[in-house]
Design a protein that fits this description.
The chain is an all-alpha fold. The chain has one domain (2-64). 82% of the residues lie in helices and 0% in strands. Helix 1 packs antiparallel against helix 3 (40-64). The protein is elongated, with a radius of gyration of 15 Å.
Length: 67
Protein backbone atom coordinates (compact mmCIF):
# COMPACT_ATOMS: atom_id res chain seq x y z
CA UNK A 1 0.00 0.00 0.00
CA UNK A 2 2.83 2.38 0.82
CA UNK A 3 4.51 1.84 -2.54
CA UNK A 4 1.17 2.33 -4.32
CA UNK A 5 0.55 5.67 -2.58
CA UNK A 6 4.07 6.84 -3.41
CA UNK A 7 3.59 6.02 -7.10
CA UNK A 8 0.16 7.67 -7.23
CA UNK A 9 1.52 10.75 -5.47
CA UNK A 10 4.43 10.94 -7.88
CA UNK A 11 2.11 10.68 -10.88
CA UNK A 12 -0.15 13.41 -9.46
CA UNK A 13 2.81 15.65 -8.72
CA UNK A 14 4.27 15.28 -12.23
CA UNK A 15 0.90 15.72 -13.96
CA UNK A 16 0.04 18.80 -11.89
CA UNK A 17 3.45 20.33 -12.49
CA UNK A 18 3.26 19.81 -16.25
CA UNK A 19 -0.28 21.19 -16.38
CA UNK A 20 0.65 24.21 -14.27
CA UNK A 21 3.80 24.99 -16.24
CA UNK A 22 1.96 24.65 -19.56
CA UNK A 23 -0.75 27.06 -18.43
CA UNK A 24 1.79 29.50 -16.96
CA UNK A 25 3.28 30.16 -20.40
CA UNK A 26 0.52 32.71 -20.85
CA UNK A 27 1.45 34.75 -17.69
CA UNK A 28 -2.04 34.13 -16.33
CA UNK A 29 -1.30 34.18 -12.63
CA UNK A 30 0.63 37.46 -12.98
CA UNK A 31 -2.35 39.09 -14.70
CA UNK A 32 -4.64 37.70 -12.01
CA UNK A 33 -2.51 39.08 -9.18
CA UNK A 34 -1.83 42.50 -10.73
CA UNK A 35 -5.07 43.30 -12.59
CA UNK A 36 -7.57 40.80 -11.20
CA UNK A 37 -8.29 39.25 -14.59
CA UNK A 38 -9.34 35.60 -14.38
CA UNK A 39 -9.57 33.49 -17.51
CA UNK A 40 -9.58 29.81 -18.41
CA UNK A 41 -5.80 29.39 -18.32
CA UNK A 42 -5.56 31.03 -14.91
CA UNK A 43 -8.01 28.47 -13.55
CA UNK A 44 -6.05 25.64 -15.20
CA UNK A 45 -2.81 26.97 -13.70
CA UNK A 46 -4.33 27.09 -10.21
CA UNK A 47 -5.81 23.61 -10.69
CA UNK A 48 -2.40 22.27 -11.78
CA UNK A 49 -0.83 23.75 -8.67
CA UNK A 50 -3.45 22.15 -6.43
CA UNK A 51 -2.98 18.76 -8.11
CA UNK A 52 0.80 19.01 -7.64
CA UNK A 53 0.29 19.95 -3.98
CA UNK A 54 -2.02 16.98 -3.40
CA UNK A 55 0.55 14.70 -5.03
CA UNK A 56 3.32 16.08 -2.85
CA UNK A 57 1.26 15.64 0.31
CA UNK A 58 0.44 12.06 -0.73
CA UNK A 59 4.12 11.29 -1.24
CA UNK A 60 5.07 12.75 2.14
CA UNK A 61 2.28 10.91 3.98
CA UNK A 62 3.12 7.61 2.32
CA UNK A 63 6.78 7.96 3.30
CA UNK A 64 5.92 8.88 6.91
CA UNK A 65 3.19 6.28 7.38
CA UNK A 66 4.45 3.00 8.85
CA UNK A 67 3.06 -0.25 7.51
Amino acid sequence: MRKYLTIVGLILFIAGSVLGFYASQRNCIIAFITMGRMNFWTAIEILGGLIALIGLITIILSLIKKT
